[in-house]
Amino acid sequence: MKEQLRPEAARRERALVLLSLAAAILCAVLAFRFAVPLKGTEEQSLPDGQTLSAYTRVDLNTADLDALCTLPGVGESRARAIVAYRQQYGPFAQVADAADVPGLTEDIVASWAGQATVR
């Protein structure tokens, strides 16, 4: 009876090794297939020569509530305060002027670097 178990155990061991190898290959293939490409060091430009960031900046003088809420530290109440301040005092001359809006600090406005603009 022991002689019959040994060839069966060897066959099972071979099957387990083959299954493990197939699983490892499948994992490697899936990892390479769904890997996110590395970000290039240069910002890509669009056909008109502008960079994408030029189109994604929030203009503090024209932005609506939804656009203002995309800025770090700005929720609905701060966005409303920005719009109200803009309506009362006119357009911002520079992004740093937004620190004068009640509820905003210089640190919050500084965190908008590269994301907010005034035109």
From TrEMBL:
This is Competence protein ComEA. It comes from Faecalibacterium langellae.
